[in-house]
Design brief:
mainly alpha, 2 domains, elongated
Length: about 190
């Protein structure tokens, strides 16, 4: 996990706060203060408060652990996810890459997809996830960037083509405004 999500950072802060709230020394200090009380009723009330605080912290730690688990599970691919990607998404990405052509980088993207295909078996994904590989960050994020770049590249090419068309129109208007230049043009391209 290269980047911590805001949820994981928040959980870490909560965990640190809960861990420091009822450390052994803090509990020892509370028990010492409780023993200094003269009345048995005050001592019982103090012990009940300590026990209640410890139970609340245990519940908080359980909630934090479950939240950490949910965050980690959300980043892992299930066997069903792997099969779906291999059977559905990969062929669709290949079609998109084919449609992009050579200038759009489609062939390069298609080669990258072919390189990644063998990694998409349930066993391989499970092993890689166990050793800490995050497919969503490792493959999903770069693939998203490549598709974005390809789309923006096509958009940029369209803008450049449109700009060139405007330049051509401007040159034709300048040519039409100059009779001598227009005559020379007609001599070069009769008919």
């Amino acid at each position: 996990m290269d980047e911590l999500t805001p949820q994981l950072i928040d959980l870490g802060i909560q965990l640190a706060a809960s861990a420091t709230r009822n450390t052994a020394s803090a509990i020892t200090d509370k028990i010492g203060a409780m023993r200094a009380s003269k009345s048995a009723g005050e001592q019982i009330d103090a012990l009940e408060q300590i026990v209640s605080a410890l139970i609340a912290d245990k519940n908080e730690l359980t909630r934090i652990a479950q939240s950490y688990q949910q965050e980690l599970v959300a980043q892992q691919l299930t066997p069903g996810d792997v099969r779906y990607i291999a059977d559905t998404v990969v062929p669709l990405l290949e079609e998109v890459a084919d449609g992009m052509g050579e200038e759009g980088g489609g062939e390069k993207i298609k080669m990258q997809i072919q390189t990644l295909k063998p990694l998409l078996s349930v066993e391989t994904v499970n092993v890689l996830q166990l050793v800490g590989f995050n497919f969503r960050q490792g493959i999903g994020a770069p693939l998203t960037k490549r598709v974005k770049d390809a789309i923006e590249g096509q958009s940029q090419a369209g803008k450049e083509l449109q700009l060139e068309g405007l330049r051509n129109q401007r040159a034709a208007m300048e040519l039409a405004a100059d009779p001598a230049a227009y005559a020379r043009f007609r001599e070069m391209f009769p008919g």
